[in-house]
Q: What sequence folds into this?
């Protein structure tokens, strides 16, 4: 017994690892990211400490003396620096000339120090100039330190007189990386744009789900149910085409249909209508196309599920009802629909979750436009975290938005499980008792 | 008879020795270069590095070094995909050696350590770097450090379709004087809307085609903010001038209200926009100097100067006529071997030489980066580059290199889009922008 259990664990291990890596980890990472201020500017892998003019401006009031010290000219040709030059073993004349002619000179910037170095008789190469000037650097300006300790050590080494408290403030002000925060969530809660995006999402899911993924799918299933087998199969196959066509090509075909040199414009032109971009002409049009594009793709899954569920209904029930003189509508109402409760619930549940998370068709067709009219939550999260013109990708905020979606998904899943009475579905069959 | 084999043996040995000694100086290197927003006219952004590699190899050969550089080039036609690819690659430590991007990326990328300052590797006092316009070098700097080398300059003019302007009463002399009138402020944004309306009323262009702005987000829209008196940055701090932004938003809302701009203009297909502005389907529009190359090379507008007049962006209430330059810059990413980065820096330096850069300037209708470039015949004999340089460049502003500017930009664009499409009233949009700026940027932005 024990052996079989161990064996079971071993056999399930690859799947368990996959689940952890590809299902659990992304959610955990999204949750972690969502509590940070990560963006392009802060980087993901953690920040550095860099004393830059802007950081010093912020500290000017708090510690004017320290700021003064840090902004003082700090390229000094001193004996220690010249010894350093000797150590890097360049032409010996370089160190000699520096000692003889330039000892004690102070420069406000590296560029000015380098001008002197470039003027030496043994004219060093650009690379050597950089190596030499580094020996005379007595400032921490613009250098990047990977840790606080390195920054403090450098400050101490260069003889800056700074108290430990001041050092901490300096470290805080000069940190370039991200920090932990709950601000992303307050931004989501308070932004009117987010409310609009949420409304768009609800509208999108509700329209596609109700009009196509369930109703239209059911209609197709019933239509084909009453058809002879051969045309029914052909009909179902045709309805699968949107699902199996690569999405980019499929959406491109819609665009060709709708844009102002496309089919609709040409056709309407025959009746004297000026050509226009029907897809993006106004928000209503954009919504119409978004719903149609997604609906035609999504309807096929419901159609397949419902068709197979229909086949499971015993034919005798239909025959009996016909004998009793039932019309088609009565068959649908009293035989088909009552027995399709579970497939309908399943399709509704599955499609709600997939619609909530899907945005590729919208991205490819309207990019969320016109304006932000068709921007749904998942697309907004993508635009925030991974794709925008200004290039400042807000990973933290985007992750927070994604997390909201994950939470909504989990809540809905649990709700659906309750509706489905999952416990009864997985209960041990009575026959085995 | 034994001499020959001995000689043979010795010469083989010498050859092996020579090859090993040559190997000690040999360096085989692949330099990767990525460029954003790069179409068929902008190939020299990447090819210039190829030419530079050829030159650097020859220089190395003279010094007795065997340097072999292979340049791997990748052009991205858009910006979003490029910036996404670049930032994610850099975070994964697989960034290209050199990137060509908008200068505004220097702020965030430098702060997060994705790029390294080029001044650590090149001598800025030497030619050709000391010949590049100083203001462009400033634009390529952040926190007092030079991070990149300007790859090109440009500016963003307002274009008018001459035949339509004539049809609403402008004479040739009036059109000739138009750039001057815009510059001195006697032709304003209000006049522009009026002219656009006249074109529509006369049936010269369809409704919504009188003023046909850029159809996507872009730096252009900051020009309108400047036109209405706005300031982007002061003393290293971002500035949000509420009243100026309100006037700029109002301008677009008015354009839509008067019917000269389409309410749902944003997001239209790119090809359609280009075709329409280059064929007289639109009356007045704004674009960039590089548009000239596309109109002439791809869109079939052969007689550009006969059909189009270009000016600065006119002044609006409270502001002045202006244009914006948005230089792309060569940047070097971190995470590479120091020697390789140094070679990349040398390549950028050589690619910035006037003769090489002028190929890009003229082919793509961008503007030159240095004074010497304007003296090269290819450049000075080209009417477009010459006139655009003289008429626009002296009045050009640039967006600030500030790590938080991207955030400001996103929020500003969101507000503009909302007031343009009527999703929000102008007042509500500006108030929302103010609120969002306060909550996201706090004291990093001055609101007035």
A:
């Amino acid at each position: 017994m024990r052996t079989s259990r161990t064996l079971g664990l071993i056999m399930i291990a690859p799947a368990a690892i996959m689940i952890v890596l590809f299902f659990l980890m992304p959610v955990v990472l999204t949750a972690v990211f969502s509590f940070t201020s990560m963006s392009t500017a802060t980087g993901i892998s953690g920040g550095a400490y860099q004393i830059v003019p802007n950081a010093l401006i912020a500290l000017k009031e708090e510690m004017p003396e320290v700021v003064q010290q840090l902004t003082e000219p700090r390229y000094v040709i001193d004996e220690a620096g010249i010894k350093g030059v000797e150590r890097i073993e360049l032409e010996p004349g370089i160190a000699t000339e520096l000692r003889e002619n330039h000892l004690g000179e102070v420069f406000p910037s590296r560029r000015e120090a380098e001008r002197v170095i470039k003027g030496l008789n043994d004219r060093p190469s650009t690379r050597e100039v950089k190596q030499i000037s580094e020996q005379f650097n007595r400032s921490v300006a613009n250098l990047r330190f990977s840790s606080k300790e390195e920054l403090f050590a450098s400050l101490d080494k260069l003889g800056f007189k700074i108290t430990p408290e001041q050092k901490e403030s300096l470290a805080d002000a000069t940190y370039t990386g991200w920090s932990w925060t709950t601000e992303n969530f307050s931004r989501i809660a308070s932004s009117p744009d987010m409310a609009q995006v949420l409304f768009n999402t609800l509208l999108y899911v509700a329209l596609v789900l109700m009009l196509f993924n369930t109703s239209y799918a059911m209609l197709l299933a019933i239509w084909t149910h009453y058809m002879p087998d051969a045309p029914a199969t052909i009909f179902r196959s045709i309805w699968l085409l949107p699902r199996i066509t690569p999405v980019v090509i499929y959406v491109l075909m819609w665009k060709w249909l709708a844009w102002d040199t496309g089919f609709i414009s040409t056709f309407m032109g025959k009746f004297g209508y000026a050509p226009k971009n029907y897809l993006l002409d106004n928000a209503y049009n954009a919504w119409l196309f978004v719903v149609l594009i997604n609906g035609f793709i999504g309807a096929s899954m419901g159609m397949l599920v419902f068709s197979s569920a229909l086949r499971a209904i015993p034919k005798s029930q239909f025959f009996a009802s016909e004998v009793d003189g039932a019309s088609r509508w009565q068959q649908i109402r009293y035989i088909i629909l009552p027995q399709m409760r579970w497939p309908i619930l399943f399709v509704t549940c599955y499609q709600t979750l997939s619609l909530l998370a899907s945005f590729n068709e919208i991205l490819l067709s309207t990019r969320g436009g016109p304006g932000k009219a068709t921007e749904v939550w998942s697309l907004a999260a993508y635009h925030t975290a991974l794709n925008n013109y200004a290039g400042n990708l807000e990973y933290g905020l985007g992750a927070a938005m994604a997390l909201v979606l994950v939470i909504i998904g989990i809540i809905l899943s649990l709700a659906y499980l309750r509706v489905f009475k999952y416990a009864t579905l997985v209960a041990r069959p009575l026959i085995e008792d | 008879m034994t001499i020959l084999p001995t000689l043979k043996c010795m010469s083989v040995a010498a050859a092996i020795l020579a090859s090993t000694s040559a190997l000690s100086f040999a360096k085989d290197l692949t330099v990767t270069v990525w460029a954003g927003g790069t179409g068929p006219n902008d190939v020299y952004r990447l090819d210039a590095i190829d030419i530079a590699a050829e030159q650097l190899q020859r220089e190395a050969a003279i010094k007795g070094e065997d340097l072999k550089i292979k340049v791997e080039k990748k052009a991205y036609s858009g910006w979003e995909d490029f910036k996404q690819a670049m930032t994610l690659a850099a975070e994964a430590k697989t960034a290209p050696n050199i990137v060509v991007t908008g200068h505004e990326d220097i702020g965030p990328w430098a702060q997060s350590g994705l790029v390294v300052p080029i001044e650590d590797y090149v001598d800025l006092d030497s030619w050709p770097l000391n010949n590049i316009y100083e203001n462009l070098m400033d634009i390529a700097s952040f926190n007092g450090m030079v991070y990149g080398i300007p790859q090109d300059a440009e500016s963003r003019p307002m274009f008018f379709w001459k035949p339509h302007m004539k049809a609403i009463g402008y004479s040739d002399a009036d059109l000739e004087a138009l750039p001057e009138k815009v510059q001195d402020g006697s032709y304003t944004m209000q006049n522009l809307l009026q002219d656009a309306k006249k074109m529509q009323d006369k049936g010269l262009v369809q409704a919504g085609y009188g003023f046909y702005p850029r159809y996507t987000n872009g730096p252009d829209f900051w020009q309108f903010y400047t036109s209405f008196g706005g300031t982007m940055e002061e003393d290293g701090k971002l500035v949000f001038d509420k009243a100026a932004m309100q006037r700029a938003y109002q301008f677009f809302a008015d354009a839509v209200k008067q019917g000269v701009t389409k309410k749902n203009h944003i997001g239209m297909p790119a090809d359609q926009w280009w075709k329409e502005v280059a064929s007289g389907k639109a009356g007045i529009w704004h674009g960039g100097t590089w548009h000239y190359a596309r109109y002439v090379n791809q869109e079939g507008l052969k007689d550009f100067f006969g059909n189009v007049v270009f000016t600065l962006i006119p002044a609006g209430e409270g502001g002045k006529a202006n244009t914006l330059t948005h230089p792309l810059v060569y940047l070097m990413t971190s995470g590479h071997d120091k020697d390789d980065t140094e070679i990349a820096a040398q390549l950028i330096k050589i690619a910035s030489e006037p003769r090489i850069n002028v190929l890009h300037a003229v082919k793509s209708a961008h503007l030159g980066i240095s004074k010497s470039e304007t003296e090269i015949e290819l450049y000075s004999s080209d009417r477009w580059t010459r006139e655009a340089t003289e008429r626009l460049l002296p009045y050009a502003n640039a967006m600030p290199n500030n790590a938080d500017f991207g955030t400001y930009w996103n929020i500003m664009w969101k507000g503009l889009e909302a007031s343009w499409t009527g999703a929000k009233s102008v007042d509500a949009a500006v108030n929302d922008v103010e609120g969002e700026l306060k909550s996201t940027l706090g004291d990093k932005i001055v609101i007035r």
In short: The longest strand of chain A covers residues 49-50. The mean pLDDT of chain A is 88. Residues 72 and 294 of chain A are 63 Å apart (CA to CA).
